[in-house]
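JOB MANIFEST
job_type = single_chain_structure
chain_count = 1
residues = 125
[input]
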Amino acid sequence: MEKQHNHKDCMQALKPVQDTLDVINGKWKLQIIISLNHGNKRFTEIERSIPKLTSKVLAKELKELEQNGLVERIVRDSYPVSIEYLPTEYTKTLHPVVESLKNWGTNHRQHIFGTGVEEIKDSES
């Protein structure tokens, strides 16, 4: 006997995934988080570390990440005033997600193109 498809069970699986995507969705958010986790703190450092990311989009994405508790904006009262962006403790909860995506992407690239990590590094040089 075939199991009945249960709409409620499906929705219970979809809702948390949709919530996650609402927070990290888009081309740049995870890249910004990765940049922050690699020590880039200043706006220009983050911008330079991610090719093709514009200042306008970076500002918007940082604000959204801050609103979701993933980035802390720190204003240093110095001359000139400096602003730093830091990943929060809560950001660390995304580490397994980012690692899984990285591993899947590496495997997918190998599966589709026969290209490994070494080739990726060489092509970026």
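[summary]
The chain has a mean pLDDT of 88.
The longest strand covers residues 71-76.
exit_status = 0
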